[in-house]
Q: What sequence folds into this?
């Protein structure tokens, strides 16, 4: 029997929100357990329905989607959040990832691709719209920190480099633990050390950093 993926939608455009709910319901084992455009109701629904994935717009009144996301995290939300937006701006992408989003998707994407992104997010993967991939890499390729980070790579242990390679593949901590035959807690500890040594703020940045290093070594 197929396991249901409980999804909650947060978007202040009523027509889009309702259409998206109808589009997703029943596809790929997805069950839409809540949909709202109001921050207060989002908080209530999250506690009541306990979804597996949160799909939310970036630009929402009164303070924006990322402000709401940070608020929900402070209230205990730790599941994957996918930003679904019309904005392809690099700054918006950077801010979303730094706020804890697991993915950044564009509203012109195909329905089947959105279903696939939700399924991948549940598996612990990071999902980014193809049009945004290079921009995500650019976040760590540009600026004065790039050269510094390249030097910091030498501080990683062999095990930490292994885990960084797995992060670059988009694997979750649990998947990495299975692949390396170590405990989940050990992976979490290594990830914290990696972020600290590379002066990064999230596993998403670590994954992009690893990809950028591989690209650089192939030039």
A:
């Amino acid at each position: 029997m197929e396991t249901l993926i409980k999804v909650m939608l947060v978007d202040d455009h009523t027509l889009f929100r309702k259409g998206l709910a109808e589009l997703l319901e029943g596809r790929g084992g997805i069950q839409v357990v809540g949909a709202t455009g109001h921050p207060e109701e989002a908080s209530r629904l999250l506690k009541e329905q306990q979804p597996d994935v949160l799909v939310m717009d970036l630009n929402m009144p009164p303070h924006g989607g990322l402000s709401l996301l940070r608020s929900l995290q402070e209230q205990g939300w730790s599941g994957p959040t996918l930003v679904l937006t019309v904005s392809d701006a690099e700054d918006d992408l950077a801010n979303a990832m730094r706020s804890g989003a697991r993915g950044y998707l564009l509203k012109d994407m195909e329905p089947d691709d959105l279903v696939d992104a939700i399924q991948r997010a549940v598996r612990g993967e990071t999902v980014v719209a193809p049009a945004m991939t290079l921009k995500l890499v650019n976040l760590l390729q540009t600026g004065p920190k790039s050269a510094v980070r390249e030097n910091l790579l030498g501080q990683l242990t062999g095990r930490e480099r292994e885990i960084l390679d797995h992060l670059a593949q988009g694997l979750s901590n649990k998947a990495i633990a299975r692949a390396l035959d170590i405990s989940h807690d050990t992976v979490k500890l290594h990830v914290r050390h990696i972020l600290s040594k590379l002066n990064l703020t999230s596993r998403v940045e670590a994954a992009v950093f690893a990809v950028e290093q591989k690209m650089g070594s192939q030039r």
